[in-house]
Every structure is written in C-alpha cells, then in structure tokens.
## 1
Amino acid sequence: MTKSARNITKEDVLYIASLSRIHLRGEEVERLTKDLEGILQYVHKLEKLDVRAVEPTSHVLPLTNVYREDEAKPSLAQAEVMKVAAAAHNGFFKVPKVI
Amino acid sequence: MKLNELTAHELLDLLKEKKTTPREILDAVLARIQATDAQIRAYVRLRSNAAAQEFSNGSATPIPIGIKDNICVTGEPATCCSRILEGFKPPYDATVIQKLKESGAYLIGSTNMDEFAFGSSTENSCYGPTRNPWNKDCVPGGSSGGSAAAVAAREAIWALGSDTGGSIRQPASFCGVVGLKPTYGRVSRYGLIAFASSLDQIGPITRDVEDCALLLGIIAGYDERDSTSADLPVPDYTRALVNDVKGLKIGIPGEYFVEGIDPQVRAAIGAAIEVLKQRGATFHEISLPHTEYAIAAYYIVATAEASSNLARYDGVQYGLRRQPAGTRKTPLVDMYEETRDAGLGNEAKRRIMLGTYSLSSGYYDDYYLKGLKVRTLIKQDFDKAFLKLDAIITPTAPTTAFKIGEKADNPLSMYLSDVYTISANLSGIPAISIPCGFSKERLPIGLQILAKPFDEAMLFRIAYTYEQNTPWHKERVSL
Amino acid sequence: MSQTVQQKYETVIGLEVHLQLSTRTKIFCGCANVFGREPNTQTCPVCLGLPGTLPVLNKMALEYALKIAIALDCQINSVIKFDRKNYYYPDLPKGYQISQYDKPVAYDGHVWMTGADGQERKINIKRAHLEEDAGKLIHDERANCSLVDYNRTGTPLLEIVSEPELRSPQEAYDYLQALKLTLEYLRVSDCDMEKGSLRCDANVSIREAGAKTFGTKTELKNMNSFKAVRTALEFEEKRQREAAASGGRVIQETRLWSEEKGITIAMRSKEEAHDYRYFPEPDLVPFDIDEALIEELRRSIPELPRQKFERFTGEYRLSGYDARIIVADQHIAHFFEACAKLYADTKKICNWLNGPLLQELNARKMGFSGIKITPEDLIAIMRKVDQSELSNLAAKETLKQVLDTGKDVASVIRDAGLAQVSDSPALEGIVDELIHEHQTVVGQIREGKASAIGFLVGQAMRKSQGKANPKMIGEIIQRKLSGKSNA
C-alpha cells in the first residue's frame, strides 16, 4: 500500500465528507476519524496478500451482452412524477439557484 | 391452533380443503400484530387498506407476507428506515412484489431494518430498534431484523428480507427461523433499494424449509429489467424436499471454527453434523484459505458501491430536503450537505465515507481494486471446494443474539459478527440458515449451509432432511 | 498582436464532441428519445434514478456507437463495460453518470478533413465512449431558483475525443465540419448544435513553436455553433498569447464562452479538484463485441463523404470544387446521382445544383431534404433549355414554381405560359418594335458594333417576359439590319 493509505487524517475526513456532500459537525469529525482509522487498520490486513496476478471480480456471474431492444415504453405522467418531488414548480423540480 | 401459528404450506392445505379463508388468515395475523408488535416492533408501517382487501378465488398463494422496508410497492412509502427517504412513495412495484401480487399475497406492511441495510442488529433504524421475540433485551439481528422477528413472533406467516453480507441469514439465526440468500441473479433486484448492487439479493424468511422453497419459487426468475438476473428456468423447489442426504459430500471449513466462536454454537453445529451423518451424508474437513480476508474485502467493496448508490439521496428530487439558515458554501451545496447530514444516520455516514475513501483518487488501487481481487480469491476457494463437494456447513453467526446496545459504540466489532455470512455474498453462492438448537439462555442458534451457484435445491434437500429429524423449527416464542 | 508573438507561439487544440444518438428510446430505459416536450413528461422511474430501479442497455445505442467507430476507422474493444462517474449536480438524478472509463467502445480512430487550402489532413481520434446525457437546468431569475427537467436524462451520448492535434481555430472548425458530415451520412444523430444534439467542448493551450511538451490548457464550454467554437477559440488563443507575451501565466480552468460579450469567462474556481471515483457499474454486465457484429454493421454503413468524393471526381469527372459542394450534403449527393443517371453532362448538372437550385433553397432558408423537386423535374427543365423550349430565365422561373408547388414541369410551363416563343411572325413583330424604339443602338449595329445586338436581344427578352427564343431574335435582328432592307 502507498504510505498515504496507512493513516487517515482529519483533513482526509473533511475532504471525503465534502466529496460525499455530508456536513460534519465538530465532534463528528473526531469520531469519524477515529472510527475510520480503526476500520482501515483492520482492512490493512489485506497487505499480507499478493494480488498482483489476480483479476478483479466486479460481477460474480459470467453474464455478458444483456440488452433491451429499442422499443418505447410509456413514460410516467408529469403529475405522477411531481408527486415524488421534494419541491416542484410548473412541472419542474425546483432546486436552489445553481449559479 | 391459531391460523397465524401455521406455516404457509399448512395454510395452503387448509385453504384447499376449504377449512379456512384468506380473510380469516389475514385477520389472525393482524390480530397477532395488534397484540404483540408493541413489544417487538417488527413493523414500521402496516398497509392501511387491510379491511378493504379482496381476495379473488383463483389466487394461488393468498398468504400474508411482511416486506422489508427497502422493497418498493407502488404508492406505499419505502424508506429503508432512513429519514432521508421520508415521504417517498415509489410509483412502481419491485419485480418480487409484482410476482407476489400475482400469486394473491397480502402485503401486511413494511418491516424494520438497519438504515439502508447497514447493520447486523436492526438498531440503526430511524424508527428505533426491533426486539428479539425470544428475549426482548436482545437484538433480532440485522439488517432484516424486522422480517425475522415478525416471522418468529407469528406476526407474519413469512416475509421477505434482503441479504448483502448476511442480512437475511444472521437475523434468521438470531430469531430461530429459516432464511435464504439465493444465488446472485436468482431473484430480480429491480425495486430493491440498493445497498451494494453486486452483493444484494432478496430472499425468503420463513418458519420452515418447505415454506422457504415455496416462497423462493414465487419470487425467483429472470427479469428483463435487471441486467444481472440469470436467464435460467426456476425448478420446482418443493421437489427437493426429500428426507434423504445419503451419499452427499459436505465440507466443514476449518477456518470457520476458530477463536471467537461461542462454544455453545460450536457444540450445536457439531450435533447437527452428527444428525446428517446418521442420515448418510459424509463430512470432509476442508480449507477456505482466504476466509480471514473476507470481512476486509467485503467492507471495501460493499461500502464503495453504497457510497455511489446513496449519492442520489441529496434532497434534489424526492425525500427529505433541508436548507441551513445562512450560506456556508453555496445554496445548492449547503442544501446537499444539510440534507444528508440531517437525513442519514451515523452508520450510513460512516459507510458512505469509507466507500468514498476507497474509491477516491490515489486510493482506488489499494482499496477498491484490491477488494475486488480478494473477492476473486474467495470465490476461487469455493469453486475449488465445490469440485468435490455438494455443500458446505458452517455456523451462521459466531454467537447467539447479543444485547441491544452491546456493540453500538464499536462499529468494527459489529462488522466482525458477519464473519460467516459475508463470503457467500462475495462469491455469489446460495446459502441458507436454519435453526439448529438453543443456547442455555434459550436463544436460537443457526446452521448455515452453502452450495454451488443456482443449486438452491441442494440447500433445501439438506435443510429439509435436518429439519425432519430435529425439533427446533417447532419451538415457539412466548409473548 | 505583434508579428513576433504570432510566430513565437503555436496553438494546440483538442475537441470533445458529445453526440446525442437518435435512437427511438433512451439508453437505459424505454422512454422516448425526443426533443422539445413539456418538462418531465418523457421520464420513468429508471431515468429519474428512483431508488431500486436498474438500467438495461438499449442495443441500438451500442450499434450506433459501433457504426460511428467503424466510420471513424477506430479500434473497437472486444469487451466493453460501463463505469460510474460520481459527482453531484441537480441535473444528474443518481449522483453518478453511467459512462465508460477504461473499456470504451472505441479508440485510435481518425477524421479526414480538408483545410481552406484544399489539402486533406488526418486528425486522430483518441477515444469514443457511450454515456447517458444529463437533464436540463433552467435558471429562474425572478424566483431566485433553478428548475430541473429530466426529459433529456438518459439520452444516449457518444463522446468523441480528438487528440490535441488541431493547430488553429479554423482547423478546429474544419474538423467539426468533417466529423459532422460523416455523422450525418451515418444517420445516427440530428447533429444539430442548436438543439444540443451535438455539443462541443474545447481544450486549448499554447506553446513555443516547435516545443514537444504541452502548455497549460483551459477548457472552453458553452459554444452553441461551430462558428462560436471558432470565435471562442480565436479569443482564447489571443488571450493566452497575450498573457504569455506579457510574462503572465495561463491557469488551468474551465471558461465559459459568452456569445453576447464575445469573450470567455472563468467559471468560479471549484471548491475541490474533480475526483470522479470511477468504478465498474455493477448494475450492467460487460459486452463482448464480436467480429460478426462488427462485420454486419460495417456492411450497413453507407458510402461515406470521402469515398463519395473520390467516386464523384472519378466516375463523374467532377471538379474537386463541385464534388466538395455536392458531397457536403448527402441529400444533394443523392439528388446528383439520380440526375446523372438521366443526363450525361454532369458538369451541367452541377451548375444547376450548385447554382440556381441551391440559391433558391438558400433564399427559402430550406435544406435539401424533403424538397418538392425531383431529379426527373430538374432534368426535364434542363432538356427543355437544350431543345430551346425554355429560355434560361424561364427555366429558372419553372424551377422556382416546381419548388413552391411540387407540380410537374410540363404543367408549370403550361399554366404559367413559360414556353419559349420561337414562332417567327411574333418575334419579327417584337424586333420591328425595337428597331423603331432604339434608333441610336440600331445605328451602332449598322456601324459594325456587334455587341450592341446583345442589348436589343435583352430588350426583346424583357418585352416577351423571357419567353422569346434569344437565338432567333438575334438572327432576325441581324437579318433585318444587314443593309438589304436599308431602303
């Protein structure tokens, strides 16, 4: 493993939180740093394994070429879609100003 | 005996003989929930229209069923027991729900779970914990703790759970019921709110093996809406229910019987092996050498997928939305961050962060990629073992149900309790947990049987033989 | 900019083209792939990314992508897979985009383009990968919020990335034209930048002429036409050269082209670097692309512009100039070939196509597809001119009317009375009138100024509303003024 992967710092935690779009309060940063440190230390037992020659497994089943034909299916009605909306406006989803 | 005490196959016999009606069965179940669920809290929500439910005469299986709160039913809330999905009602049925509706099932309501299936105790639910019907100070296991507790408490005839790292089998073990994680691809995941897409499977939680075979027969099968579902015929699983294991070769992996296992669990498994030996199965010591790396690989792969699967809960479209007073970054980013802070519980945050970390720039090769490679090794261990074996037997969990709150402060110790179940998910193979005794504290112990991909029939055959020769599935909780 | 700065620096441009594929349905669900509908009416649980839903690949999207890959002479990966690109934006419903990372559909292809100097040049394509389009954000200034429409979400996109081999904004423009033409021939996309079915981002940097390493690049976005791409690149090229010349530095950043202001503007710097956390999409399985499928698709690919150009200059002996114009629109090319089957003089067909017909269409702001004139009509008109049944002027009028009404040539000529008048007595009368009205000119002709005859012929055409046979008029004038009738 790379050196940087060994220890997780508070800065790492804040960076990951920002990537994950989670706002962390003061004591949460401390706690999560400690939790993640413990878990990662455990995970580092994988260092013992030499996996350079091993292929990764993303899918356990050897399935390939699963398609659908280019045939239209009915869409949802706008009213139906707007029923799930956290905030709606004239058939649009409404969000805070992006720019 | 009350109708809710019976298994589905017993009820189907009564229905065939016209000795009862679907209405009577449903009423018995609802009455039981009314009487006992305040103590257990297996359900987080009941369907509102029970009284109006009409049963058509032709229904094949009009049996009331509990549904884990991460499986979508049209127009009914599906929250994964997370605040962040507050108010979300899917406009579609999961494929398993479609199949159940076609069979005439009555969907009783949504059962409790660890938030987004993140946990092994059902304590991480925004609705509060479910209690183990055998001992209300104990957890029912998790994450499908609500479904397992409902079945054990006779508040459902049977139920659906989902299993990503043991979430069906471990609670089945803790609650003294039968739980099956089918082969990956056997049951459609369409409509199952994803935790880790390459590991998740929906499966049955039932009172006995016959019900398990019946329910799998209803929900299994190819689905054109799930690219990862297998296009293979569904056999009649009830034909596997034979009281005969003669000549079957069963493996016992040495790595599963090391430190950390409760001596009472070890003893119960030993006794179970004796029962099967007497019925003619042969047992073989085997090695699954990469077992000790399974938990580490699992928590990397599962959390990475989860971090991505849960990115959609950001307040933009549906569910919870929060906006902080004042501006921290930009109104949009503030909305994201405040919503996810308010809507996600501690364990969810922990796993999202862990998964994000292992995928992030500079760490991918050391964590996520390595996790996928170790997964290959674990799968190869099983492939190799099954060249010579029909099945493998292990405990389902190293201990019986633990106390509520006991592991709450130590996420790692909670993760370690999944040690026996995780490998089946990583390698995609089917695995069943069946009751195999009780501890002296009268907590159930579970026996896990694993088989080759798509050989659920083998699991049923061994489990059924064991069940026919032991009394455990007839034990009742007293509530 | 001084001459020295011009020569000192070299511009390096790479283009990323996002092409919407015109499949019937979206890439991962059965929603119709259509443009311009009411907001959120072409969506379903899958493309909305609702919890529990799963993608299933539209086979046609993959086939379109493969066709493009074949047409661009790309290498095609024998196994392709999809990956998740994770980032947050309100137009992205799942918090990730299904895209392709390390096993894209295709890599190492090229586009042949012709520069302003008529020289052909090969621009290499780095890769082409499939992905899903995002939704559309609208900014509501009054309500101080943004609005999201997910109709576009899940439209199949092929991202075609060029190598940084373009050396000027004009080259970038020529590359886009050439690429677009090939894509149009394949009929896999509308290729309409205004509708957003073809979008282009540009990476641009400068370096000292002859340098081997690349300078710091900026990424330009928000160009809504090929011309805008060229103008934005011109602006950015100048900006970077001036910065370098005055000792400044170029910062790596994304800049938005402002069409109104004619400048590029730096986007507010990101709070964090991009960290897309790509990983294999667990909800989709890999795809084996076998030779048989590639062969089948190869056979379905029509003749492409470059081959057509070769053939037209060879088989039909067209000039490079004519062939280029005709090949630049596959509808014109088809029309031309249909005409060429009916009429031997291909140069004359070109003159009609590239002349009057295109002028008329341009005047009507019409494209060539779906026009009301058939190749048979055009050839009929040309034959009538050859046989002196139509004057050139009347022929153009006939063309116009056929274009407008779709009526056949004969009835247009009959109904509008456009047939050429070749009957002598009528023409003699006209000439007599003219001789009477234009004595000065008549004098000049008699003095031997032959060019003055042309004037009288023109006047005769006017008088006859273009119907007089100009050849006969000329003969009559000459006969009448050739001394004998002097008395």
## 2
Amino acid sequence: MKELLRVENLNAGYGDMQVLWDISLEVKEGEIVALVGSNGAGKTTFFRAITGLIKPYSGKVIYQGREITGTPAEKTVSLGIAMAPEGRHLFAGMTVEENLLMGAFHRKDRENVKKDLEWVYKIFPVLKERKKQLAGDMSGGEQQMCAIGRALMSNPKLLLIDELSLGLAPVIVDVLINVVKDIRDMGKTVLIVEQDVQVALEIADRGYVIETGKITYHGEAQKLLEMDEIKQAYLGI
Amino acid sequence: MKKHIIPLIFLVILIIIPPFLSGYMLRILTAVVMFATLTEAINIIAGYAGYPAFGNVVFFGMGAYVTAILMNHGFGFYLTLIPSIVTAVLFAVVIGFPVLRLRGHYFAIASLGVNVAVMEIVNNLKIAGAAEGLTLPLKKGANPHVVYTYFYYLFLVVLVLSVIFTIWLEKNRFGFGLRAIRVDEDGALAMGINTPLYKTLAWSYSAVFTALVGSIYAYWISYIDPETVFDPIISVKMFVMMLIGGASTVYGPLIGAVLLELIAEVVWSKFVNIHGIVLGAIIILTVILIPKGFLDLFTGGFSWRRLVQNIKENMI
C-alpha cells in the first residue's frame, strides 16, 4: 500500500506552551488509522497542526510525497484533506443541504459536486430527509453525520474525524462506525482522533496512543486492544 | 426577481419625487438616502460577515477629508472620488490585517479605537485644517433647489450601487463564505475558506461605499471638522438602523434607515427635551419585540405567538 500521509518528529503548541513532542505517524492509502488518548493529550492540536490551523514549531508533514508543513488550511482542503472538526462546527443558521454544499466551497467542478451530494445522501439517508431543515435543529448524531457528510463533499483523499463518538448515544456510535468503514471501502483514507479507545480501535486497522503529547504505543489495532497496559489505562479491565 | 419589484417601484418614486418636495422635505429625504447607503455598507461587514464594525464611520470621515483636501487644492469633485475610495480601501486592508483577527466585542472595541485614533490624528493635521476643519468650494446652481436636487441624486446613485452589490453578494460564493464566517468562523476555516482574505475584502467593500458617501457629504455640507465626520454616533446610527431593519438582508437596512431617520425627525421636533429617551425606548422595544428586524415582520408575517416568544427570549 502506498503511503498517503507521513508525519515526522512534529513539535507543536500554542505560543510558549508546547503540546506535541516529536510525534511521528504514518497513514497508508485505504487505511483507517486511529489516534487515541485521553483529554488533553494533544489529539486536537495534532489535527490543527497537520491541517494548517496552527504552525508547527518543527518537524515535517508529508502528504502524497510532498511536504505540506505549515500550509494554511484553505490550501490543505483543496489538496484533498478534509476535516470533520470536534464539536462539529456546523453552520447553525443554514439548512442541511447548504451545510453540505459549504463542504464543496473550494470546488469548481459543479457537475461532480451534484453527484457527490447524491452520494452523501446515499450514505446518510437521514440527511436527505432533512435537507431543508436547519442544521442546528437536529440531534447530536444527525449533526455528526452532517459534519462527516460535509467533509466528504470536498471530495477528499484523506478524511480527518475529530472525536467521532463524543456525546453520542452508543446506538448512534455503532451506526457511525459502520459508516466510517463504508467510507473506507469506497476508497477514502480515514484518520480518526478519539478519546473512546474501545470505539477507535474497533474501527481502525492501526492505532497510535498519545499521552501528554508523546506517542507511547503504536501498532495494529487488534494487538493494541490486547495489550495489558492499554487495557488497564483506557479500558478499565 | 419578484422580491425586487416593490423596491423598484420605490426607486422610481424616489427618482421622480424631488420637484414636488419643499427644500426641508428634500433635505430630510437626502439624509435618509445617505444613511440608507451607510447602513447598507456596514451591513456587508457587520451583517453578513458578523463583525461588529463600530468604527465604520472612520471611512466616512476619510472620504470626506480626502475630497475636502483635494478640492481645496483645485481638484474637481469627481476627480476626488477615486482617491477617496483608494484611501479607504488601503486603510481597511492595512488596519484590517491585525484588527480583523479579533472577534466579537474585541473587534467592536478595536474598530472604535481606530476611529478615535484617526480622528485625533486629523485633529492635529495641518493639511486637514486641524481642529478647525475645512471649508469646501460651494456647488454652484441656478437656485438652492437645483443644488439640493443634485446632491440628492448623487447619494441616490451610490445607494443603488450598494444595493446592487448586496444583491450580487447574496447570490455569490463570496456572500456564502461570509455567512459561514458569521455563523462559525472555525467551521468556515475547516471548510477551506480563506477567512482572513474574506473578512478583509468584506471590510474593504464596506469602506468603498462608506467613503463615497463621506465624499458627497463633505461637498453637500461644504464644511467639515473632525468631530462631526468621525462622530461615533454615526456608526451607532448605522448599526441601529441595520438591526431595526434586519441585518444581513438586502432591503432590511433601507427600511431601518427610513424608519429611524423619520422617527428621529418627528421625535426631535415634538419632544425636543426628551428625544434621546424616546429614541432609546424605541430601539430597546425593537430589539426585544422583533430582534430580526422589521423586514422579517413584512416577509415572515405577524403572529402574536412569535411576539410573545420574542419577548420571553429577549427580556433581560
């Protein structure tokens, strides 16, 4: 499998407060990779650093063999990296369909945008039912679907999902897990950041565990789930 | 197209009405048109992009001063318009770069600060007549009514331009991007919208129309000083008109300008001593009863249930 994203010795943070220390990570095409860790471990900061929302202090982000370290967010989206941000950040005053179209904001190929819209509706039928409804009036699970659908509308190669399960009912989480797998089967690569280690490692092919800004373990998701240290620290068994 | 028919009828009336008006009425109507344009301009940055530009009057003052200074150096009025626009846009870009990073109240305060700073600079600028202000050459005409009509039409042209621009903005990608910034700037950024560029452009467009109005105002009044053309009260007025009429709509700001300017005129003549109180009460009532503005009342229809709901939601 070809490598899609490689992060080398990434150091990043906010001003004097360094959050990430020498993070290295790799995502191959067609994989689902999970970055797991508890609150405050630096997961969201990691996403912000690779999507260009903050500038890393040092290290490299290589995407499709090209260095994109510090490329601003509006450019990384057109390179094919889409993000479903934590807390969803839907546009509350806009309808579901308008929200989805916002995901295709930078695209010029209008014909394909229409096709992709139908495609997203196929993945999330509930969004089609509610396309005229205001996004802010939907339930948390539906909003998360809308956020993922919106990210897919930019026709990304790499889909970043920040906190897939946060604040959602277990039933909804199960639905979303299957959807993420479907999205991968349709040829997208997924990098997911998640505080629910169980959920994340169930979906993912490989996983990285981050603790206070440093990667402590990584490997195949199944093997990580079986590790005693991880069982004790995150799964409570 | 349908929703533009009524405004078009109003436009025709506005075009043919001047000969039938007294000098006093024409002056009031000119002020209404002027404030409608200023409000339409602030609507771009404060309405659509959601950045409360409380210092927007700074562009008005700049336009006025560029025209005044240049006309005092022998330039014709129309020749001063391009420099007026260029100055305002340059200022919006240079100041916007740092100031537009602030959000919400912080931006409002910073833009207000910028306005006061520019006013103080002009207060001490020899070429701008410092605190004494500047006198402009008078517009010549056969009689006062002809002169007043001339300025009325000038303002009207800029108003029409600003409305056309806003209609274009509503339909355009750019307007869509601004709406996204207003609702959720982080979300907009994650969607790949170049938010710093969009915000700066929005403020620049706002500056263009505000500066043009400032230029015409200076020539119309023919005497300006820093205290009047950089008066923060003008900004407040634009803001209130926008809110009363309906923010981030094409025609809301115009309705707001008409209502507030006419109400202010009536209140001012009937209740000279307490006109501030009456105006303040009207503003508070509007914000509580119809927070989306009067336009919403016309297009969304009136219902007691919504009125009661608004009262419940907006009472302090």
